[in-house]
Amino acid sequence: MAPFISRLKIRLRLQLAQTDALPLLALLGVLAGLFTSATILLFRLAIEAPLEAYLPNGDHENFEALGAWLRFSLPLSGAVLLAILFHKLSTQSRIVGISHVLDRLKNHQGHMPLSNFFAQFFGGIICALSG
Question: What three-state secondary structure class fits 1?
């Protein structure tokens, strides 16, 4: 399967380099937009659904209505959960943030390991949920 995908990628790159590649580039742009919007939607739903469940009246910003012990323990438990998550990841997967993304764009032709995507995606969800 890997040789087939490799040949397909090479053929696609050659087609995109041609002068008449505008329809293919437009399709690629639409697919990238759909993937990006689906990722943003999943991120928002992963944050809003739990907040709606554990905050009173379903108000996403009503952390003041929680008890004092919960307001103290939420950030603490989020920090512990993130520490455990990032401790289990490999050293290369732990590198996250805007500077890492910019470095990958500049020095590695935008190639970013999938583990970095998952670390940033789920790490951001945990940070947002725990305050």
Answer: coil
The string of DSSP codes covering the chain is -HHHHHHHHHHHHHHHTSTT-HHHHHHHHHHHHHHHHHHHHHHHHHHHHHHHHHSGGG-TT-GGGS-HHHHHHHHHHHHHHHHHHHHHS-HHHH--SHHHHHHHHHHSTT---HHHHHHHHHHHHHHHHH-
Contact predicate 65/54, CB 8 Å:
no
Quote the pLDDT of residue 43. 94
Give the pLDDT band of residue 1 (cuts 50, 70, 90): low
Residue 93: half-sphere exposure toward Cβ, Cα within 13 Å: 14
pLDDT at 77: 93
- Give percent of the chain above pLDDT 90: 22
> How many Å apart are CA 52 and CA 60, to the nearest integer?
6
